[in-house]
Amino acid sequence: MNKLIKWGLPLAGLGVLAAGWWLGLAWAPPDREMGDVQRIMYVHVPLQWMAMVAMLLNFVAAVSYLLRGNASWKLDSTAESAAEVGLLLGTLGMVTGAIWGRPTWGVYWSWDPRLTSEAIMLVTYTGYLVLRRFVEDPDKRATWSAVVAILGAINLPIVWFSVRWWRSLHQVQSSPKTVDPQMVLPLRVSAIGLLLITIFFLITRYRLALAERQAEVALPDALPEASGSVVSNAHKVA
Amino acid sequence: MTPVARNRLIALGALLVAGVGLGFVAFGNIGENLVYYWSPAEMLAQGDKAYGATIRLGGVVQPGSIQWNAEHTTLHFRVANDAKEGTASVLVRSTETPPQMFRDKIGVVVEGTYDKSGVFSSNRLMVNHSNEYRAPKEGEDPNKWRETLTDGTTTASTGTGAR
Fold it and tell me: pTM to 2 decimals?
């Protein structure tokens, strides 16, 4: 099982992603208006989808952590790993979006509702991760960061619906009705490939986070001969 | 209060704040005060208030209105509310090379100022794409088609100014 996750998952993900990108670059037709530039869609859109999935996971884990109330380090570690992976994917999504924007819109960046809310999202989760590094007490860190995660999640539906609620430079979501089938297939294959890689990242980062938490929390038990005052100190320092 | 109860209370509080905040954004009509661009009709309806301020104007390029002077690299075109005939439109002057997709009937957003002579001086021209992605039709080559369009526009309107 472990081997399957460590080797099987990334290899399968890379394989499916390679197939999706090959389909997108070599098999799918160019867009009739944008030409070959449109092919960056097979990179940009899966990145943003997966960033959204990771941020939603962060929200669910944060809410569950607070509602369970019994300091579940597994949920806290899930939240941390999801935010970190989501931030990476979202940043790459924004960069690829800017690269796509320059030849099509004429600009890398404009403060339209979609781009602005996306920028707020990245700043929020950067703040979330910074907060986690600043708080040393694992209990307080988990509780405070869960609150930030819940408040930050307000923005997720705003990012998604911004193109529908307000006028923007960014177009509204496409659907299989507005995209030719030869383009939908490479997009879906690429998204599945990136999903597998995202899951691999999440599991790997989650294990690291959980090991860190357990080391922090278990420190007093790891020092059985230490006196009581040192134990309580060790807990505080951890 | 036990830590469990405290954490649950925090969760409910945060969820409540998040829900109210989201509801405010979604249903609070902030879109009416915060618009990314004005349509030509909206800008013209502002009257004197539209003059001089830096604004964004958005709409579609009125068919047949593009005039590109290659010598002076000035571009004139009209931004209309929509592609139908007879809708409100504004004459735009730009000294920028337009993005590749710029052409008749495509959505544009221009940033600049509107003055009393009725010309919108743009210093930033953006083209927005629809959510449609289609394969080229039989015999169409998107890259070649773009080249011919640029050449055609250039030769058709050399030396012409504003209407």
Answer: 0.85
